[in-house]
Amino acid sequence: MAAILVVEDERVVARDIQESLLRMGYDVIGTAASSTECLAHAEERRPDLVLMDIRIEGALDGIETARILRSRYGVPVIFLTAYADEQTVARAKETEAHGYILKPFRAGELRSAIEIALFKHEMETRLERRERWFATTLRAIGDAVMAVDRDGCVNFANPVAEALLGASSEEIVGRALPEVFRPIDERTRAPITLPSPKDVASGKSAPLASGAALVSPTGEHPIEDSLSPIIDDKGQLLGAVIVFRDVSEARKMRERVALSERMASLGTLAAGVAHEINNPLTYVLGNASVVARELEQLNQAVRERRESAGALLDRVAERTHSLSEALVEIQNGAERIRGIVVDLRAFSQPDSAERPGDVRSALDWALRLIEPELRARAELVTHLEPLPGVHGSGSNLGQVFLNLLLNAMRAVAESSARKHVIEVSTSVEPTGFVVVDVKDTGIGMAPDVMKRIFEPFFSTKPVGKGTGLGLSICHGIVAAAGGEIEVQSTPGLGSHFRVRLPIDLRSEPPRESTPQPGPERRAKILVIDDELQVGTAIRRILSGHQVVSTTKAAEALELIAEDGNFELVLCDLAMAEISGRELYERLAAEHPEYKERVVFMSGGAFSPDIEKFLKSTTRPCLSKPFGAAELRDRVNGLLRTRTKH
User: Fold this and answer.
1) What pLDDT digit, counting tens, does each position of 533-549 carry?
2) What is the pLDDT of residues 433-448, one digit of tens each?
3) Does some domain include residue 163?
4) Distances in Å between the alpha carbon of 220 and those of 69, 182, 184, 248, 253?
5) d(Cα 645, Cα 255) in Å, to the nearest integer?
6) For position 235, what pLDDT does the model report?
7) Distance CA 529, CA 516 (A)
8) Cβ–Cβ under 8 Å, residues 187 and 169
9) How many structural domains does the chain have?
């Protein structure tokens, strides 16, 4: 029931109106004859509606009183008056009254006016409340927001927009959008033409391209934006809203994150790089020591003249042959180290934009870096063909392939090289794209995970184990080159990543020698390392012992089962088919007497599990690269310890 206040200085008329309202079912909270009485009632009772005579007692007439009621209390007013002159009506309109009834009036006219006024006021109140909600929300959000009418004139700007545009809302509202919002292309410095609201509504417009900047009195701000039409419930275009943000800090953050992710990738593979360097260094240093020792012995023999000249020449020829083989392997090892350094330098230095990206070189680089760690996880199968140059940076593409290979490797369990396969292949499409496929037979991904893998900061790894930016950055690098990256995955069966890159239209392994077997000496030692040169170098260094070397852990197990007289077993930790850890566990189960004879060799521990294993076992571990004297001293010391026991 609406509460109504009647303001009428004629007491009889006021009483008649009150009785009519009561018969209609309204609640009359009182009557007033003056502005002072009216405002007192309004302050105390807060009526839903005021029926106001224009000529009332006191200094203020009904029109002035209505103006106060509306501004102070928001109370709607219907004027009941005998005056309809042009000046009075004009003054009444300024108060935004909800009705104007001329006396005398019928009860039906009054009822209709009251109902319409109450309904109109309720609708206005709801609309005002909603507008306040929206305005407060738009002013509170962190993005800049501007609204324009259908003619493209600004009718709203929030504080963030004011700050970026360097102007107050009063200076912005009412002006055409291109007058206050002036974006340019950062590269060409050309102005960017803004679409009209009609273009926005028809879908002919799109967000500003990457590389747009806003020019304003506060400076130049790189921005991203979105445009949306404002449509009423009848489908009529009312205008458009533009939301934009200053991406200066976000751009700096992306650059910092990209650098961090790049360094994190290198950090993740630091142990693998160390392994790849330390293995050739091991046989480089070992063979260098052997050459030095042999030359010293030859010089000593010549000085002492203990043999005849002919016999001495025969011995020199024999030793020279051995030294030549050692020197060839030293050169091969040094070349491998040089190649690794070149790869790292290529990764750290930016490519020339004038040169097409070399996909094959980038892929070969990534494979070389990750292969030492990958060999313990899965069988690597490659189908690589010559490829034309593509758009994009070679070093950035190397980062993409490295991340994809890392993800494939992490999708398979450790020490499962016999169970899983990682396949890398390349091809060229007739449509003008180079294609790189990376497939694994790992754990795969659920559909909900696969949908989000390219989102920044999304990761399935435990907190602290990854930033969730690797694939996001890969997607950005490939997209920037004009390509695309796709993924297919089935839980439990593996994943398939495909990188497609547009073609840019501008555009022998170390020889392994077979050493002569050394003479049988004080101890029989077995060396297991999948680098043939490492085993060869150790055999030369330990020439005073009977050294048997193999590159296969399975063959080593057969040798132990057949012979059983090896006093020491020097075993590399990172091997493809059977790792050093697995070999040790097999020996502990099948030949427990060998548990105390194993000596590990390692170019670096590649996982927390390996580090934990090394700490848990009591067996010694030789860190590569090691020198000849260090190896001989360590082996002789271990042999003396075994003799005592």
Assistant:
1) 889 989 988 988 999 99
2) 999 999 998 888 888 7
3) yes
4) 48, 10, 9, 10, 18
5) 61
6) 81
7) 18
8) no
9) 4
Residue 400 belongs to a domain: yes
356/503 same-domain check: yes
Residues in the chain: 645
- Report the alpha-carbon distance of residue 496 to residue 423 in Å, rounded: 9
Geometric angle at alpha carbon 185, from 486 and 176, rounded to 5°: 115
Q: Give pLDDT, residue 229.
A: 83
Are 457 and 470 in contact, with CB atoms under 8 Å apart?
Answer: no
Which of helix, strand or coil describes residue 152? Answer: coil
Q: Is 390 in the same domain as 453?
A: yes
CA–CA gap between residue 413 and residue 164 (Å, rounded): 52
Predicted model pTM? 0.35
What is the three-state SS of 443-488?
CCCCHHHHCCCCCCCCCCCCCCCCCCCHHHHHHHHHHHCCCEEEEE
**What is the SS3 assignment for 63?**
helix
> Strands 77-81 and 99-102: what pairing?
parallel
The terminus-to-terminus CA distance of the chain in angstroms comes to: 106
Report the alpha-carbon distance of residue 85 to residue 94 in Å, rounded: 15
Question: Token pair for residue 281?
Answer: 């260094």
Instruction: For residue 31, give the H/E element and its range.
Output: strand 27-32
| CA separation for the pair 474, 401 (Å, rounded) | 8
What's the CATH number where 597 sits? 3.40.50.2300
436: domain CATH number is: 3.30.565.10
Say yes or no: 371 and 500 in one domain: yes
* Contact (CB, 8 A) for 502 and 483: yes
CA distance 580 to 600: 7
Tokens of 168: 């107050």
Cis peptide before 592 (omega within 30 of 0): no
Structure token digits, residue 495: 């994943």
Assess whether pLDDT exceeds 60 at residue 209.
no
At a CB cut-off of 8 Å and minimum separation 6, what does 571 contact? 528, 529, 553, 556, 580, 583, 584, 598, 599, 600, 601
Q: Compute and round to an integer the Cα radius of gyration of the chain.
A: 43
Q: Give CA angle at 133 (130, 134), nearest 5°.
A: 90
Q: Do residue 484 and residue 551 come from a single domain?
A: no
Same domain, residue pair 181 and 157: yes
Residue 339 lies in a domain: no
Q: CA nearest 442: which of 495, 370, 367?
A: 495
495 and 370 together in one domain: yes
Residues 364 and 425 placed together within one structural domain of the fold: yes
- Considering the domain architecture, whether residues 122 and 45 belong to the same structural domain is answered as yes
DSSP secondary structure code for residue 592 in this structure: G
pLDDT tens-digit map of 253-290: 766 666 556 555 555 555 555 556 767 777 777 777 77
Beta bridge partners of 229: 240
Nearest to 267 by CA among 547, 421, 467, 89: 467
Residue 201 domain flag: yes
The Cα–Cα gap between 25 and 110 comes to 13
Distance of CA 615 to the CA centre of its chain: 35
Residue 236: give the domain boundaries: 142-246
* Across 75-84, 301-310, 499-508, 512-521, least confident range: 512-521
Whole-number Å distance between alpha carbons of 49 and 3: 7
